[in-house]
Design goal:
Chain A is an alpha+beta fold. In chain A, 26% of the residues lie in helices and 25% in strands. Chain A has eight helices and 17 strands. In chain A, a hairpin with a 4-residue loop joins strand 6 and strand 7. Chain B is globular. The chains are: A alpha+beta, B alpha+beta.
């Protein structure tokens, strides 16, 4: 299962090459050509000689993680977060460091050493460290240096009824969907773009979109899902198992209304369950793509994932499958609808 | 030189027509159609780009003509529906800088004419007055009834017309429909006395959510020089901010804000033009905020850019207030500036 492999491969922002290599293996026989650009985006295409809109499908390869910044005299590794991670999820998690994947555990001050009042404060990433079981700085420096990445060490597993758990579903779920879509043939040019550095500011997509100069773009994402006890209904972003989520607005873009309407029609026509993403914060690669060159109509479709941006997330297999069906349906409908989709 | 004569009656009725129209960021269709109808007779070409910017071109055609981009944003702040509850109440997120204390109790309207009142949950402490405690009541008795009129993603704006208040006008979205009106007035001025330049009037989208439309429009136009016309904050109210700009003080020539330092040659050009033509003006230093020029000047290899501001009180409320004489001064100053040679290159 490709998603299992993609989920387990480390690929923190700026260090996506292993993910890219695995994706390339999966798509090389499905596409007409591909290249890796200066920032590391993998840009693959098929149907480049065909008439019709140039369609960019984007999913980001990078994931949130940590970077080693300093090795202290006790042989403990200080780190900075790469991308948005809630400090509360960090303590006692296992990580793999650097190209060799050296195992480590995130440690902090034990409870019995906390000063009065300290136990009530939330833990801060600045007070945590990674322990690789070394006795001294010298011992650490033989295998780890500042600048190395640490990724969460989470095994993929199937749990419950059709649910999977793992790390980095944001956005390896989107990558797996895009690999699936590239198996299809379309009567217009399609650019499958696997982007870098989304989690630290939508950076890869910005230059990739400049290069591709698409007529329209769809961003495939794994997104937040907070249908959990204590959440007010209007604060829940998406509902687990209720199908692909279509974004109406986030902090980085207001999706093209004709594209959004086209997605809804594609779902309704086929009886595919779908939902609106009901919060308006966060951002996706659509934020940088739609502002490229003279402007690009763009929209985002997401698979709901619980506990995103943490070492371990849940994804519902039916949501993944329905997202795939929705995207495929939208692309099948596109030739008939294309005239009305570009522009407003 | 005499100041260009501005038809103040025409200008005021144009502001009163544009400001109440529906056009939150991303849903600018209705205001775009309205503006397009007004500008079509005044220019050579009108087009809409991929993000929805309305671009109206008036060619000067003289030798040495520059490509000049003149921008005012047609979008306004608003709210977007994120949830409809079982009883038909709508939860929402802000589109642009929307503040809870201002919204509470306001009438808002959707583009199909549906109106609603912004209500609040019962709050124990006034400090709890935050956007996520507010909702819109459209008089629906159930989710089903509400969903017949609005959906997730529907946007609403203040429902407010423009009224005269003494020598001022007050209403919603004078930010930046007054700038749009100024641009249309400049078109009238250029009909009477043309500019040598090819002037690209851009009525931009999505300014309120991050200067987005102007960025792609500027990429397409590749201007030699750019001007934006937008409103600015003032310091002329009781215990107000310490800002020198005041309503009725004339067109405000921007020195800087957080998005732009006006190109020194354009700053001089605007000041010299105002002095020579007897157009009332003031200088503006805004410690925050930004306009379309902030995005435009960083486009491609860089675009010398300047801003003419319209002093406006109570920004981002349904009761924005400005003096139409200041709008007239902004239009007059821009029209005169566009008749200059507009040298390009480093200062």
């Amino acid at each position: 299962m490709l998603l299992r492999e993609l989920s387990e491969i480390p690929g923190v922002s700026g260090d996506e090459h292993r993910v890219r290599d695995r994706i390339w293996q999966a798509i090389r026989d499905r596409v007409e050509g591909a290249r890796v650009d200066a920032l590391g985006n993998l840009i693959a295409w098929k149907g480049s000689g065909l008439p019709g809109p140039r369609v960019m499908l984007a999913a980001h390869m990078d994931e949130v993680g940590l970077m080693i910044t300093r090795i202290d005299s006790h042989g403990l590794l200080r780190f900075r977060k790469v991308g948005g991670i809630d400090d509360r999820v960090l303590p006692a998690k296992t990580v793999r460091i650097g190209p060799e994947g050296i195992p480590g555990v995130i440690g902090g001050k034990p409870r019995h050493l906390l000063k009065p009042g300290e136990e009530k404060k939330p833990v801060s990433a600045e007070d945590l460290y990674i322990d690789i079981g070394a006795a001294s700085r010298e011992e650490v420096e033989r295998v780890v240096r500042p600048g190395m990445y640490a990724a969460f060490a989470t095994e993929f597993a199937e749990v419950g009824d059709g649910v999977v758990k793992g790390k980095a579903f944001d956005d390896r779920a989107g990558c797996a969907l895009l690999v699936d879509l590239l198996a299809e043939d379309f009567p217009f040019p399609v650019f499958g773009v696997f982007t870098v550095q989304e989690e630290i500011g939508l950076r890869g997509a910005r230059v990739a979109a400049y290069d591709v100069a698409p007529d329209l773009a769809l961003v495939l994402e794994g997104t937040t899902c907070a249908d959990i006890p204590g959440a007010a209904p209007h604060g829940q972003s998406t509902v687990f198992g209720a199908g692909p989520a279509i974004t109406v607005m986030d902090a980085t873009s207001i999706p093209s209304r004709p594209l959004v309407d086209g997605l809804v029609r594609a779902a309704q026509r086929r009886g595919i369950p779908w939902q609106w993403k009901r919060t308006a914060f966060g951002g996706t690669d659509a934020g940088s793509i739609h502002l490229t060159r003279e402007g690009v109509p763009a929209a985002t479709v997401s698979v709901p994932c619980r506990y995103i941006h943490s070492p371990c997330a849940f994804m519902n297999g039916s949501d993944y499958e329905n997202t795939r069906r929705l995207l495929l349906g939208f692309l099948q409908d596109l030739p008939a609808a294309a005239a009305g989709l570009h522009g407003v | 030189m005499n100041p260009p004569t501005i038809d103040l009656t025409r200008l005021k009725s144009l502001i009163a027509e544009l400001a109440p129209a529906f056009g939150p960021s991303g849903e600018e269709g209705p205001i775009r159609e309205l503006i397009a109808a007004r500008v079509r007779p005044l220019v050579d070409e009108v087009r809409t780009d991929a993000l929805g910017n309305l671009i109206a071109v008036k060619r000067g055609g003289a030798s040495g003509a520059r490509r000049v981009m003149v921008s005012a944003h047609m979008d306004e702040i608003g709210v977007i529906v994120t949830h409809i509850d079982d009883d038909g109440f709508l939860r929402f997120a802000p589109v642009g800088a929307m503040r809870a204390p201002v919204l509470l109790g306001q009438r808002v309207m959707f583009d199909d004419g549906t109106v609603g009142t912004v209500g609040s949950e019962k709050l124990d402490d006034p400090k709890d007055l935050k956007l996520d405690r507010l909702f819109i009541d459209i008089g629906a008795a159930s989710r089903k009834e509400a969903a017949e009129r609005v959906r997730i993603g529907s946007m609403a704006v203040y429902a407010q017309d423009v009224r005269a208040a003494g020598r001022c006008l007050t209403g919603k979205a004078l930010d930046d429909r007054s700038g749009c009106a100024a641009l249309i007035e400049v078109m009238h001025q250029l009909q009477a006395e043309p500019s040598p330049h090819d002037v690209y009037f851009v009525f931009s989208v999505q300014e309120e959510v991050g200067l987005r439309g102007a960025r792609t429009a500027a990429y397409a136009i590749e201007p030699d020089v750019a001007f934006a016309v937008d409103v600015t904050a003032t310091g002329d109210i009781p215990k107000g901010e310490r800002l020198a700009v005041k309503v009725g003080g004339g067109a405000a020539i921007k020195i800087k804000d957080r998005s732009l330092i006006t190109h020194p040659r354009l700053r001089r050009l605007l000041i010299d033009t105002a002095e020579a033509c007897g157009i009332p003006y003031q200088l503006e230093v805004l410690p925050y905020g930004g306009t379309d020029a902030g995005a435009v000047h960083l486009t491609r290899a860089g675009v010398p850019s300047g801003v003419i501001s319209i002093p406006t009180r109570y920004l981002h409320t349904p009761g924005e207030m400005l003096d139409p004489h200041d709008v007239a001064a902004a239009a007059a100053l821009l029209a005169e500036a566009l008749r200059n040679p507009l040298a390009v290159g480093p200062d």
